[in-house]
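Hey everyone, long-time lurker, first post.

I ran two proteins through the pipeline my lab uses and got sequence/structure pairs for each. Pasting them in order. The first:
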Amino acid sequence: MIVLGIGGSTHDFGACVVVDGKVSFAVEEERLSRIKHHSLERLRVPRMRLRSVDYCLREIGATLDDVDLVVANDLVYRGALRGLPAVVPVNHHLSHAALVSYTSPRAVQAILVVDGFGSMRDGHAETVSYFVTGDDRVPRPVHRETNRVRRRSADRPFSWKNFDFVEHSLGELYSFVTESIGFGLHDAGKTMGLAPYGSERLVADMRRITGSDPAGRVRFDAAARGELAELIAVELAGEQGWKPRADVARGMQAVLEEALLRRVHDLHRRTGRDALAVGGGVFLNSVANRRIREEGPFRDFYVHGATGDSGTAIGAALYAYHRHTGELPCGEEPVYLGRSYPRAEILAALRVSAAVAWTEGGDVCARAAAVLADGGIVGWFQGRSEFGPRALGNRSILADPGRPGMKDRINSVVKHREGFRPFAPAILGARQAEVLDTAAPSGFMCVNGTVRESARRDFAAATHIDGSARYQTVTERTNPRFHELISRFEALTGVPGLLNTSFNDNEPIVETPGEAIECFLGSDIDCLVVEDFFVTRR
């Protein structure tokens, strides 16, 4: 049976195909359109047709006529579904929950879904949902909260152009503050990264305005939004630099963490489960995830890397397959779900550019490790592309994590982004406990740890200002070639990890060899490794 799943809402669209219960291919639309988040506000409706659908079907040698079932979470913008046969809707929060219910190591667990908003009905949208699962892994709702959808003009009917915000939504609150301090609508990660640079002087004021109750419900109506806007405007008035913005970010991050901790305690009281899985874009906040894992009442914690709206493609498809066949989907954790590129396509891309030279074969891991040990920056393009917002060793820019000035160099002349933004370490699983204060694996870079004092020098460029790191655990099982590269680097330097950041420059992560070459030539990357090709500038 072939199930085609569509994810997204008004942004972060994606598609996947599930074949006989296994996720065969999945890709986010932004990787193909080259428009970050592929969001409605940046597109005209005629351009909404999803290329990701054709991408996935082509890779399994199928057409739409071969698909047995098409499903989408019910918040996906309808224009994105044009050209598809009858689409079966799946509740938005249920789709988030299904992603982790079918991929988590634990079958029996509680699931918390928190995002900006989910499925809408009668002028209200879901903002928080609790689920439980049993041995059959079907997510069953136990609690759901909906809140009022505010329109820009109350005299006009609802449309996305007339949408303003959803009241009392933690995700909407965080996004509002993010935009108010000068970042984009989808830049919540920048707020999280800026927060450690701030002081706690605004925490009490932001707590007072948003008023989280014992169950973690926050206040975010028109009055609260007005108070926040006034507070932030006063803070930013006439002030240059990042300091006042950092203070606001610190206050908002504190509100988020406290609300989520109250939520998980409330969920635990209601369900009595000892394992927790989470879903929804709010859980891309790795700082909050760490506190939930360490301070929450659950013994086990799981988050998938595609916890945002694109991941609902997989969740909806797995749920639909299970419901229609009665068979449990394959329990493999889906990570590298894009296509790999054959030698002929790589050669064709290399031959297009007169600016590159290359050699093929030999020990490219050894050559790349030598460049890294010598202080160079390597573009690393291997195998199937990752699904989700993080680069996990197949579409990565890599560097020595202990090299002085490396963080500033990559932010400035490779990524061309704000200097305060941190980088993540990819660490050999067998050595992780020597580097971090935790041995708990994190395959998706969605949880923080603290870098031990003894490792701070070796991981200075991948350690944030507060000593934390949003780390990736790398094992031979999860990514053999990436593990080999890090091991070669360790043999040369004694350092069991690399600085790992996404292979892009203010655009979506590269998908094709041609895009990797273009990004390489447009930045200060020293060499590029594409499968077995070692690429340099002429």
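...and the second, right after it:
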Amino acid sequence: MAAPKKGRGPATGGQGRPGRALALILVVMGALVGGMFATGDLTPRLGIDLAGGTSITLRAENQPGKPDSINNTNMQTAIGIIERRVNGLGVSESEVQQQGNRHIIVNIPKATNSEQAREQVGTTAQLYFRPVVAVSGNTPLPDPSADSTPSATPSGKASPSGKATPTPGATTQGRAVTDALKKAPTPSDGASGKPGTRPSPTAPLPSGPADPGTAALDKQFAALDCTPKKGTKEVPNPARNADPAKPTVACGSEGDAKYILGPSEVEGTDVDEAKAVLDPQRGMWIVQLGFTDKGTKKFAQTTGKLASQAPPQNQFAIMLDGQVVSAPSVSSAIGGGSAEISGSFNQDSATDLANILSYGALPLSFVEESVTTVTAALGGEQLKAGLIAGAIGLALVVIYLVVYYRGLSVIALLSLLASAVLTYALMSLLGPAIGFALNLPAVCGAIVAIGITADSFIVYFERVRDEIREGRTLRPAVERAWPRARRTILVSDFVSFLAAAVLFIVTVGKVQGFAFTLGLTTLLDVVVVFLFTKPLMTLFARTKFFGSGHPWSGLDPKRLGAKPPLRRSRRAAAPTIDPKEA
């Protein structure tokens, strides 16, 4: 029977096969780096404070007739809608969070569509279809003249009402043709020369499908001036906070016409989908609307009532956030569950409107309280300062490791390099994957992680040194030190990760970037220590340079003050016999 081999106990901590762990982590690193080159994301995405961009502060206001509409539910709903609008334009690094009870902060990094995103951020997108009671050009109203009455078209088609520059032709069944110039009808001379049906601003309001019945509204209409403000294109918006259940006065979106409108018949919530389409027949961009089942019935009933009215009361105004986008006329009831909005759209403006309508209206009105723009140059300076701070911190760690641990510093530096490769690759890939953007607090988190990672190496090295001081040789010392060091490292990293997780949950905005980076690097520290540092230490312990305790290895028994082996101490202390007693 063969005697068992002496001097070789069971391998612990992967002592016999450290190459497998090293091969595994090297394969993972290669896969992550390969993924970076495959996707083309060779650098992490930068946040607004590093890449430059715009920060917008919005203040919420109560909806008309709803004094308690500002609540946490509506604020969170608004945040979700704003995020979908901005991200729908491809600005996936945007950041939207609530601040206090009635403020929302929107950060839009510099991107191709950042200006479009800014325009959509505070747009409430309250869409209403209101019947037109009266309309005129902007003040002062010219003398009314005959209006060309829209002709009845077969199969329920709608044709445009007469205007100075009429829109040609009718569309397919079930759609409303709107003004191609985004204008409401204006007076035009007819063949008969008789007065038309549009009232003057001071004339009594005609009775119609939605008669306001109040002299106050008539007076308000007469005094309304929709001329855009000087130096800007901002058009007055008296209907911005109007109650949809009551009549109101409104301006056209271009400021060239003013209206008296009846209560809303169809709302934006009745729209199921919206998309921008290029109409090949007319060569113009339009926005196609698809109604819900309920909206289809309401739209058919409304257009049926309007079809029997005389101009302009056979028109319905499409209102977006209090302004009339267009006011098509109706010649018969329109069913089929679809309609279209046409006007002076280009591809961008049509896409913007479709995007806003598709993602829904905000439950609250918002006022743009402040806008802060960060230039790319300023962001570059901040990034440069952060990198310099990180380089200084890393240099100090390297100097300490080399001076104090000598040869062991090679293991520490290789482990830091492995951790840096994993961190950089993951940050680059997480940008397109989850929208992670590296901001200045995140850079600070990465700098702090250098110390956390180095601390794990120090814990292990000191445990190994303790075992050598007890008189053990290097290879047994490496394996005996590992279980004790492992517990300490896991507890330390668990506390760091827990702090990062709590910080990420209870904070908002840029602080979350710090917490996310800290948590990510803490997890990577565990991976690197277990799969890289420990196996590498096992392999180095088998070399003559480290195994023999070379003075520059950092593991010299004499330098560490190692005790002689316990058995030798007992032999040396054996009692001697006095010759006199003998």
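Reply from user beta_strand_b:
Welcome! Quick read of the second one: DSSP finds 15 helices and 13 strands in the chain. Confidence is low (pLDDT under 50) at residues 1-14, 139-212, 566-572.
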